[in-house]
Structure formats: structure tokens, C-alpha cells
Amino acid sequence: ILAIAAHCLALAGRIDEARNFSAALRKTLPNYCADDFIGTFRFEPDAEAMFRLGAKRIGLG
Question: What residues contact 38, with CB distance under 8 A and at least 6 apart?
């Protein structure tokens, strides 16, 4: 849930909020990254690229 919130907020341009969620996520999973998020779902290539962009914006890329 934290990862979904972080990525979606990043894509919505709400970077500060997204970073708060990614920080909370990394407290429990310090090495969590975009690959973990992408690997959990079945995304089309364009959606994967979009979420990777969001991840880069908040330091999960």
C-alpha cells in the first residue's frame, strides 16, 4: 500500500507526500526499489516506464 501511494503521488506531482510514503516504506524495507514494485504487478511496458519515472522522482528508482 505504501509503495502504491508513493508511486501514484509521485506521478501526480505530489513529490513531498510521495517522499513521505517512500520514507515510511524504507523504514521497514530499506532496500526497496522500483524493481520490487514493478515485479509485484503485471504492467504493460508503457505503464512500467511511467512507474519507473515516478520512482526516480522520489529516490526509489
Answer: 48, 51, 52
